[in-house]
Amino acid sequence: MNTTILLFLLQDGITNGAVYALLGLALVLVFAVTRVILIPQGEFVTYGALSYAMLATGQVPGTAQLAVAMGLAAFGLDLFFARKALHVRLALRSAALNIVFPVALLAVTYKVAGPATPMAVNIALALLIVAAIGLFLYRIAFQPIAHTSVLVLLIASVGCHLALQGLGLVFFGAEGLRGPALSNAAVTAGPLRFTGQSLAVYGLTVAFIVGLWLFFGYTRMGKALRATAVNRLGARLVGIRTTLSGQIAFLLASVIGAISGILIVPITTLYYDTGFLIGLKGFIAAIIGGLVSYPLTAVAAILVGIVEAFSSFYASNFKEVIVFTLILPVLVLRSLAAPAVEEEKD
Amino acid sequence: MSALLSVADVHISYGKVEAVRGVSLEVATNEIVTIIGANGAGKTTLLNAIMGVLPLKGRTSFAGTDMAPLDIEDRVATGLSLVPEHRELFGTMNVEDNLELGAFRIAKSVAANSLERVYALFPRLKERRKQLAGTLSGGEQQMLAMGRALMGAPKLLMLDEPSLGLAPIIVADIFRTVGELRAAGVSVLLVEQNAQAALQIADRAYVMELGEFVLEGSAKDIASNKRVAASYLGFQHEGESAV
Q1: What's the pTM value of the predicted model, to 2 decimals?
Q2: Which domain holds residue A146?
């Protein structure tokens, strides 16, 4: 191997690793706040990427209709659970979020969708659609069982993943899609060529990490999310609604997933089920970070990306095997280092 | 005397075991009320149920509002606050963040004033405001738990065993502060095993045994009750045996 190949592989690995880092951070965030291991994170990636790709061809993606359907279900659940203490303000607020928002989104999408729609509008629409789906997914699938064990939440999470993946096949078909690049500019540095797309990946990853750090460190809502993660009862006793924390965590996770998807869909062809594998790699990083540490997760994600790049060069048939095998020594070490703990009740 | 908190005929069960049986109590505005009793009498269960942490059967109303349909977060918003037995602090966050979150439902401008008041009440917390809550001593954690509850400007503060596991000198400090709260317009419902200290600062007292109130009255009367003196205060009146 010569230096040029080494540098190419490193560059490739870091670009992919940056995306895994975003996904890993979202997984850690959701787990810390809601104790849900977010398997459908990969579907947020696919939905974001393919909605964007379809919008770019001038079509209205099925995800826009899905958001409306899920909004209706969420509204129904809101009314049902508040039936004993229902008042008009609550019903109106729920209707605004769960019905008006997705219906307006669908209407705007139908109105502006076309081959000539500016890229920024397509990106915004794809992000909003996936954000709505993420928010409603929490309301429908996880909020009613928020108090159950991690295992129950995990099973629900797998169910959501399967359902969303199946719907993905309906919406996007079995053929892969590729989206237009954010920028066609390129910079050459020595033997390396940085495309505008990969620079956007780095830039957005760093921006998101800094943004999340500011949000969690300096805003009241960010601190409330951390508080919910540290002590759920304590958080409730100061009046922080764990459902609100959960909704915000899912909202962030779905937006992060969709952004990751939009960033990679110009680089590789995505299929309706590709997101799962991408999400799993973020999950490997999150596990290496123990599902608690954000910095460790980010570093591990870069490592996962680099290992993936090298193994696809040397043993491309075993690429996934090698990447997922990374988790084994980590689990062994972690199980040796930490004594068995009873699952926390609350 | 208008009741701020009123609890009538409350039953609380853990599965088939009834831990609290038909208890009624009232706390008036600007009053300090204590519930004393031995370990396992149901005092903590009762406080948790009033806060909404545990489900209960019976009627509870606070500041004229029926509490039944409200969950914990809504009860906090009505001005009811619980400092739980295990304090439930945010251990990996610093003292000031813990306090700020105590004012989660309060406007930021008001919260700044509350922070100054809490620091005046507990100067120790100000010294340690950048320290992580989990690294504080037991007494400081209790002060932080009370401070965090006070940040929400409660009308009624419910304290569960604030003296638990603390050195006597700290306990005296905590109880003095509880006494001062009345001046700040906060009523207190205090659950304690340390009956002597609790009866000294309280206006009225309830004695709880095996899930029921067996005695109630002014703190003075309760303190001079022979049975209470023998069982909870650790001394007997001359020439008489404990009943």
Answers
A1: 0.86
A2: 3-180+193-200+233-337
